[in-house]
């Protein structure tokens, strides 16, 4: 599984990354989280609102900080 967090370093983007890490840790999962923070790369991937979370290349959440439940759902936990 490939997890990507899209964001330019704003507080919401940092919170999203930390929340994804917390959910993974709570479920005993060790999955690398890739950060996509260059504006050009974010736009190239079709993301126009950050923070955004992609799983295996598919953007699942965009433009807001997800809830723990949403993260668990998109990760299949």
List the defining traits of the structure above:
39% helix, 77 residues, 4 strands, alpha+beta, four-stranded mixed sheet, Glutaredoxin
Gist of the model:
The protein is α+β, with helices and mostly antiparallel strands and 77 residues long. It has helices at 11-26, 39-44, 68-75, and strands at 3-6, 33-36, 52-55, 58-62. Strand 3 (52-55) and strand 4 form a beta hairpin.
Folded structure, characterized:
With 77 residues, the chain is of the alpha+beta class. The relative contact order is 0.27. The longest helix is centred in the first third of the chain and has 16 residues. It is built from three helices and four strands, in the order βαβαββα. The protein has a four-stranded mixed sheet with strand order 2-1-3-4. It has a single domain, classed as Glutaredoxin (3-Layer(aba) Sandwich), CATH 3.40.30.10. 39% of the residues lie in helices and 22% in strands. The model has no long low-confidence stretch (mean pLDDT 95).
Number of E-state strands: 4
Instruction: Give the mean pLDDT.
Output: 95
Radius of gyration, in Å, reads 11 Å
SSE class = alpha+beta
**CATH fold title:** Glutaredoxin
The top-level CATH class is: Alpha Beta
Beta-strand content:
15-25%
SSE arrangement, N to C: EHEHEEH
Q: Please identify which CATH superfamily we are dealing with.
A: Glutaredoxin
How helical, in percent, are the residues? Answer: 25-40%
């Amino acid at each position: 599984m490939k997890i990507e967090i899209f964001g330019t370093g704003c507080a919401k983007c940092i919170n999203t990354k930390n929340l994804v890490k917390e959910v993974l840790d709570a479920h005993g999962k060790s999955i690398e989280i890739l950060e996509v923070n260059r504006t050009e790369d974010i736009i190239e991937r079709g993301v126009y609102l950050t923070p955004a979370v992609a799983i295996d290349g598919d953007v699942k959440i965009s433009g807001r900080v997800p809830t723990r439940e949403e993260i668990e759902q998109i990760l299949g936990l």
